[in-house]
């Protein structure tokens, strides 16, 4: 349905602060103002409205932006020196989604770069010579899967990868991100994703994993990073996706999960927030948006007669937010208008 | 905090024995970062030391230098943790340094985890002597299930209370800067649980009250409230449930369009196995008020109440009433969620109605 062609004045939508302002409502109202400005030229209130049909994803600009990161990153990127597989993943996954065919030379370089970040004792690290960590392991395995050739898959030492995953597996079903590192539900997802793609899902690896994720569900219905912690879009996606890969979405209270997820969409902005009473952010288009196809499958399996033909959120509104408010003129996407 | 001399450490004689190891990205790698010379040389030396897992003061100093250049470099944090333990270092000065690092990097997974590892290790002194210790810090007390506060001596309890006081103050300072810092709240929950059923649980409610006075919409504080009642010794007794219902109703009355207290209220009722109908009168009393009657949360709570009634009564009338609430949400009060509310309306068809 969307926000831009909804009946009524766009000024009537948005947060109601009950005439009792606090910091949360103040920043929310400020954000809404900046989104209204971004939307204004497309609304009927505008003196010469820009047609909605002209809204488009500026693919070539985004391709150029992404390609720009391949051969040179300025020194301030040192802050991501332990996330190099992520940099490769963000670039290649974006190109893939934008329909840009990955040239063979680029694929070869990606395979070589990633292979230099594999650890002798299994898994992948944030950079050559670093210790294995589940996040770069996820990114590395998925980069190779995007390339998808035998040569790419052959890079992965599946034996030592399983050894690494078992090394970070905890008795309570959770995974630490690295040996001696922190535990949270990202670990569950990264491990399940890598294990599924490489076909090393063993009972030892998966035992207790679903139950741990289930314990991360809060009274709000969403998932936090660890049992007890606040429900959060990023962790909700990781947890739900891990459960889907495990075939164990049954551990969740579905009704409260769906309600919480649907409630994260912002009534004016159209995009998603990550937590109750926080701000919209383009990244949650993925974390929260990505939850709905999985929910759709869950709901269909309960209710054959009442099958969900479309996902239970406003897709048009999300598109409007991303395309109108989050595309940078020079290419790339952002959290929100600055 | 880092070396104040003009000469980089790697040009000093005490490092002359090290053969630096350059980074091996392979030929023509993707995403090459234009490191400063200082950084790449520092890392060449770090790789050499780390390769042998050298346990020495100079290795410890080097980890600090690397961390300050690259705070999210998780490998160096792990190495630092093993060095602190092997060299039996004074951990209270480490805590001071972590304070400084948190101020600079309040959202770093590594720094918050490091604090937890250090405090976990310090707290081991409070464990009974026969509990086995492990070689990696982080599994030290987690394996044993935390500190058995009630079994401690008076002196040990005092030490535990002091440690908790310091940590909670550390976290409160971070929350002053950003009242919703996810890492801070996660760590706060770990501290409360790890040290066992001490007096800090009841005190936590006072802390949450203060935060909610400052910002009634702070959902992290509301979540913490639920945590305080359900994970520690406080519990959701009948008395506590009634107190919480009363508390939350006053917050709702002040800000009826604030999602947090509504969801908290539903959560408490559900956890304590109370029917939603317990708040039906309260909700219906808000309906005629202009300042409340467009709250999507008022209407969605009414939908839950009417749905619960419909499932119990199974009359056409009660199902219709619930459906009307769903339609009100989809069409007037909360149209962004029209698809969801229409799905809820469809679900009501599953209630088999008595003829």
Automatic annotation (TrEMBL), chain A:
Catalytic activity field: L-cysteinyl-[protein] + (2E,6E)-farnesyl diphosphate = S-(2E,6E)-farnesyl-L-cysteinyl-[protein] + diphosphate
Record-level GO cellular component terms: protein farnesyltransferase complex
Keyword presence, Glycosyltransferase: no
All residue ranges annotated as the Prenyltransferase alpha-alpha toroid domain in the record: 57-337
MF-aspect GO terms: protein farnesyltransferase activity; zinc ion binding
Pfam families assigned to the protein according to its UniProt record, in alphabetical order: Prenyltrans
Record has Zinc as a keyword: yes
Enzyme Commission identifier(s): 2.5.1.58
Record's keyword terms, sorted: Metal-binding, Prenyltransferase, Repeat, Transferase, Zinc
Family note: Belongs to the protein prenyltransferase subunit beta family.
Stated name of the protein: Protein farnesyltransferase subunit beta
Organism classification: Eukaryota, Fungi, Fungi incertae sedis, Mucoromycota, Mortierellomycotina
Automatic annotation (TrEMBL), chain B:
Entry EC no(s): 2.5.1.58, 2.5.1.59
TM helices/strands, residue ranges: none
InterPro entries, per database record: Prenyl_trans_a
One GO CC term on file: CAAX-protein geranylgeranyltransferase complex
GO molecular function, one term: CAAX-protein geranylgeranyltransferase activity
Cross-referenced Pfam families: PPTA
Keyword annotations of the record: Magnesium, Prenyltransferase, Repeat, Transferase
Cofactor(s) the record lists: Mg(2+)
Gene3D superfamilies named among the record's database cross-references: Protein prenylyltransferase
Protein family according to the UniProt entry: Belongs to the protein prenyltransferase subunit alpha family.
Protein name (Swiss-Prot/TrEMBL): Protein farnesyltransferase/geranylgeranyltransferase type-1 subunit alpha
Lineage: Eukaryota, Fungi, Fungi incertae sedis, Mucoromycota, Mortierellomycotina
């Amino acid at each position: 349905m969307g926000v831009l062609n909804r009946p009524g004045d766009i000024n009537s939508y948005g947060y109601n602060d009950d005439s009792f302002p606090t910091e949360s409502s103040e920043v929310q109202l400020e954000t809404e103002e900046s989104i209204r400005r971004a939307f204004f030229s497309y609304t009927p209130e505008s003196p010469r409205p820009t047609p909605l049909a002209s809204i488009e994803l500026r693919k070539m600009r985004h391709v150029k932006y992404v390609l720009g990161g391949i051969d040179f990153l300025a020194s301030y990127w040192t802050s991501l020196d332990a996330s190099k597989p992520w940099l490769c993943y963000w670039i290649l996954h974006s190109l893939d989604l934008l329909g840009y065919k990955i040239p063979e030379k680029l694929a070869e370089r990606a395979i070589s770069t990633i292979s230099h970040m594999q650890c002798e004792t299994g898994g992948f690290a944030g950079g050559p010579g670093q210790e294995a960590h589940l996040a770069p392991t996820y990114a590395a395995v998925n980069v190779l899967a995007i390339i998808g050739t035998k040569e790419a898959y052959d890079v992965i030492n599946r034996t030592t990868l399983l050894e690494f995953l078992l090394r970070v597996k905890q008795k309570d079903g959770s995974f630490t991100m690295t040996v001696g590192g922190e535990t949270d539900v990202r670990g569950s997802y990264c491990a399940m994703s890598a294990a599924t793609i490489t076909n090393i899902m063993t009972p030892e690896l998966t035992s207790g994993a679903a139950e741990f994720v289930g314990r991360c569900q809060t009274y709000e219905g969403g998932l936090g990073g660890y049992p007890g912690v606040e429900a959060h879009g990023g962790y909700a996606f990781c947890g739900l996706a891990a459960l889907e890969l495990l075939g164990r979405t049954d551990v969740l209270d579905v009704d409260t999960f769906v309600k919480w997820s649907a409630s994260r969409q912002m009534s004016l902005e159209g995009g998603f927030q990550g937590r109750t009473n926080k701000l919209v952010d383009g990244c949650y288009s993925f974390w929260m948006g990505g939850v709905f196809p999985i929910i759709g499958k869950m709901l269909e399996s309960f209710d054959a007669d009442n099958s969900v033909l479309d996902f239970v959120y406003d897709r048009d509104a999300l598109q409007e937010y991303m395309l109108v408010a989050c595309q940078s003129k020079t290419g790339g996407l952002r959290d929100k208008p600055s | 905090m880092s070396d104040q001399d003009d000469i980089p450490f790697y040009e000093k004689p005490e490092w002359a024995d090290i053969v630096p190891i350059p980074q091996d990205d392979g030929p023509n790698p993707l995403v090459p970062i234009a490191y400063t010379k200082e950084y790449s040389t520092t890392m060449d030396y770090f790789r050499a030391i780390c390769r042998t897992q050298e346990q020495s003061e100079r290795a410890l100093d080097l980890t600090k230098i690397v961390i300050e250049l690259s705070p999210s470099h998780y490998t160096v944090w792990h190495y630092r943790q093993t060095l602190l333990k092997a060299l039996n270092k004074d951990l209270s000065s480490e805590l001071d340094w972590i304070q400084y690092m948190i101020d600079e990097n309040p959202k770093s997974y590594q720094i918050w985890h490091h604090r937890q590892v250090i405090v976990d290790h310090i707290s081991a002194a409070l464990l009974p002597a026969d509990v086995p210790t492990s070689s990696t810090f982080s599994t030290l007390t987690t394996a044993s299930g935390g500190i058995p506060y009630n079994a401690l001596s008076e002196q040990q309890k005092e030490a535990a209370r002091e440690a908790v006081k310091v940590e909670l103050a550390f976290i409160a300072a971070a929350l002053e800067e950003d009242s919703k810092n996810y890492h801070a709240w996660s760590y706060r929950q770990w501290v409360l649980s790890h040290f066992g059923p001490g007096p800090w649980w009841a005190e936590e409610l006072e802390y949450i009250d203060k935060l909610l006075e400052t910002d009634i919409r702070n959902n992290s504080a509301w979540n913490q409230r639920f945590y305080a009642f359900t994970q520690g010794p406080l519990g959701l007794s009948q008395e506590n449930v009634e107190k919480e219902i009363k508390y939350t109703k006053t917050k709702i009355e002040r800000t009826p369009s604030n999602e947090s207290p509504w969801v908290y209220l539903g959560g408490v009722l559900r956890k304590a196995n109370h029917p939603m109908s317990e708040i039906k009168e309260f909700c219906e009393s808000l309906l005629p008020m202009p300042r409340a009657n467009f709250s999507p949360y008022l209407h969605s709570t009414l939908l839950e109440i009417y749905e619960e009634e419909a499932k119990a009564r199974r009359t056409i009338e009660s199902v219709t009433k619930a459906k009307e609430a769903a339609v009100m949400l989809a069409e007037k009060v909360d149209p962004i969620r029209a698809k969801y509310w229409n799905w809820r309306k469809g679900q009501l068809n599953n209630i088999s109605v008595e003829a």
